[in-house]
Amino acid sequence: MRGQVSTGKARAAVRRPAAEQPAPRPAVGQGYWQIAWRRLRRHRLGMAGAGVVFVLLVAALLSPWIAPYPPTHIDLENRMSPPSWKHPLGTDELGHDVLTRLLYAGRVSLTVGFSAAVASALVGTVVGLVSGFYGGWLDNVLMRFVDIMLSVPDLPILIILARYFGGSLVGIVAVITAFGWMGTARLVRGEVLRLKRTDFVEAARALGASNARIMWRHLVPNALAPVIVAATLAVGGAILTEAALSYLGFGIQPPTPSWGNMLQNAQDFIWRTPLLAFWPGLMIFLTVLCFNFFGDGLRDALDPRLRT
Amino acid sequence: MGGYLARRLLQMVPLVFGISVIVFMVLVMAPGDPVDLLLAGNPKVRAEDIQALRKIYGLDDPLHVRYVKWLVNALRGDFGYSRTYKVPVLQLVWDRIGNSMWLTIPSFLLALAVAVPVGVISALRQYSALDYAATFFTFFGVSIPAFWFGIMMIYVFAVVLRVLPPGGFATPGVAPGWPTVVDRLQYMVLPVVVLSLLQMAALTRYTRSSMLEVIRQDYVRTARAKGLAERVVIGKHALRNAMIPIVTILALGIPNLFAGAPLTETVFAWPGIGRLIVESVGGGDYATAQVALLFLAVLVLVFNLLADVAYALLDPRIRYD
Question: Are the beta carbons of B279 and B285 closer than 8 angstroms?
Fold first, then answer.
């Protein structure tokens, strides 16, 4: 037991330089982002994740050109057909081509994921910035509000909100954002509280910089790294949430395809055409997994202190 | 400790108030009030009748008046009737919570039984094959859509292998006693596994990182230097300290099991609180949705409190005041 532990440690010690060493010798003028990029490139899983995400994005963007059929095209004679030359992944119960639907659904799911993650990051950054910078009663009120929002069980309340506002793309993004910004707010507030006391902020203030300038030029750029990491990981989370809401019938409504609503009916046909339920879920899984790998790589590259 | 508890309880009051306002507002803002839903599609209804009904239900009162009325009734234990099931909401929600417990408690125990040993071993043998496997598993666990995983499990075990039921709660007409227990267990297997997956993944990750942090501490080295058996060093000195943050994660994770239940319970047609929320929201059954939501919110608060108290009890470094 003991021997194994120490060999494990020895191996860890051997490995660590390769994984954590910032750069062999940072050349003059090599900035933080260049060093981070070099670290990211060495993170194999992170790069693999980024690669798959890139392919998915391109496929989604080009879907009008690469999809074999228009998104609402119905082949009445070939409903629930198995994979064939005409329909590479088969058709669903209405005669939609599954490959076509998957591509178009990818557009919807990725759009929702990105928009909700960016919107949550923006809202969270603003709230955290204001809360940390001004402090006092404002900080108190905002942070108690964050506590409340974090105490509300999110999926059930998302179901309710999505039922009434979630039919459209904008609606679903707004609903996911409404319960997605609190983590970033806490993160940014913490960073701001730390940065506020640093000498360079003091110096900026002494030089007569306005509050807005201090926040925008000194606090935001320095708090950016963890926000980017959180936002990347949030894309996966938002895609999962959208899929869950659409699966339950409260998200994106047919005939607009989303990976979640494709699964909704597929479960009923699992005895006849199990593949119908397989593909959309696989796409969600793959996308979220790759965003998580990429986010993990980003975290290691941007802020090695955050390693878990 | 008593003072600490009392203060924490007092701090919960504004939180509960805030949450009750949010829960109330969310459902009041929703388009289509109870009268609209009640009379929808009935051509014989006149405008005066609608007005009268709105008055009876108090829907024309200002919002704060409606909130206070709702709150006063709620404090008396009167949450109204479910429009769909025609029974008192409290009764309905209570029954469904009972059904949910059949899933949440076993899946919590399953997650605990797998995650803690795997996390500990994976930390003790960092960078071993098992560690990599565990890390990969945690990524899978947090990335896989639980409902899809559930559907795939149904396909494998109910459609192909035909060893487990595809969903539901009990087979009608099973003899009471032992056969009922076996029957219920068969229905429980798949949803319990699916529900525990996410929790398991998160818990493994936390256990691993907490353990990794602890085994590098000086007091662990000291324990080794004293010549203690490795079993004692790990079991007594390392694990006990590593468990402190894990207990917090555990307590915070229990409400998540209920909050995640809408998906799992829908996939497996399990008549629990999660499915009740999905059904009542879909059917415009406001009173039911409100109470179910409020219950979940209070659950989160209670377990937050428990987590803090457990933390304070387990870690003597934390002062109560």
Answer: yes
| CA-based end-to-end distance of chain A | 24
Return the HEC string of chain A.
Answer: CHHHHHHHHHHHHHHHHHHHCCCCCCCCCCCHHHHHHHHHHHCHHHHHHHHHHHHHHHHHHCHHHHCCCCCCCCCCCCCCCCCCCCCCCCECCCCCEHHHHHHHHHHHHHHHHHHHHHHHHHHHHHHHHHHHHHCHHHHHHHHHHHHHHHHCCHHHHHHHHHHHHCCCHHHHHHHHHHCCCHHHHHHHHHHHHHHHCCHHHHHHHHCCCCHHHHHHHHHHHHHHHHHHHHHHHHHHHHHHHHHHHHHHCCCCCCCCCCHHHHHHHHHHHCCCCCHHHHHHHHHHHHHHHHHHHHHHHHHHHHCHHHCC
What is the ipTM metric for this complex?
0.84
> pTM above the 0.80 mark?
yes
Say if the Cβ atoms of A285 and B143 lie within 8 Å. yes
Rounded to whole angstroms, the Cα distance separating A182 from A177 reads: 10
Query: pLDDT tens for residues A74-107?
Result: 777 777 777 777 777 777 777 788 888 899 999 9
Taking an 8 Å cut-off on Cβ atoms, the answer to whether B151 and A249 are in contact is no
Query: CB distance A164–B29 less than 8 Å?
Result: yes
Residues 123-152 (A) with a CB less than 8 A from some CB of B = 144-145, 147-148, 151-152
- CB interface of A with B, residues 223-282, below 8 Å: 236, 240, 243-244, 247-250, 263, 266-267, 270-271, 274, 277-278, 280-282
> If we measure between CA atoms, which residue out of B260, B261, B255 comes closest to residue B296?
B255
pLDDT digits (tens), chain B, 321 positions: 677 788 878 878 887 888 888 778 877 776 666 666 666 666 677 777 777 777 777 777 788 888 888 888 878 877 777 877 888 888 888 899 889 989 999 999 999 999 999 999 999 998 899 999 998 899 898 899 989 999 999 999 988 898 888 888 888 878 788 888 888 889 999 999 999 988 899 899 889 989 998 888 898 999 989 988 888 888 888 888 888 888 878 887 787 777 778 889 999 999 999 899 888 888 878 778 888 888 888 888 888 888 878 877 777 776 655
* Out of A11-15, A141-145, A250-254, B196-200, least confident range: A11-15
Give dist(CA B90, CA B92) in Å, integer: 5
Chain A, chain B: beta-carbon pairs less than 8 Å apart: 150
* pLDDT for A54: 93
B157 interfaces chain A, CB cutoff of 8 Å: no
The H or E element spanning position B239 is helix B239-259
- Which B positions 115-134 lie with beta carbon below 8 A of chain A? 124-128
Dist. CA A10–CA A80, nearest whole Å: 57
| Interchain proximity A285–B144, CB inside 8 Å | yes
B244 touches chain A (CB under 8 A): no
Rounded to whole angstroms, the Cα distance separating A63 from B21 reads: 44
Choose the closest CB to B300 out of A151, A160, A250: A151
